[in-house]
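Internal tracking record. Fields below are filled automatically when a chain is submitted to the structure queue. Please do not edit lines marked as system-generated. If the sequence contains nonstandard residues, flag them in the REMARKS field before resubmitting.
Queue: standard
Priority: normal
Entity type: single polypeptide chain
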Amino acid sequence: MIGTIIGAIIVGAIIGFGARAILPGGQDIGLPKTIGLGIVANLIVGVVFQSLADNPIISIIVAAIVGAGLLWVAIKQGWLSSTS
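SYSTEM-GENERATED OUTPUT FOLLOWS
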């Protein structure tokens, strides 16, 4: 149970940082929001693209792209601020 939570946090951080790297410009969000973004993106990809569960590398890449899209929408809606 604890291992699953720690794993989700680590994978969420990787995906969140990947999403922030894909989106141009700076984003004014901290580490908790970055991890949350990654976890939400990973959940979306896990539900929508269940066939990607066989290849975790592809799953992380797709989740980072989904996370970048979520981050872009959040900035455009004014939920988060951009530093660019």
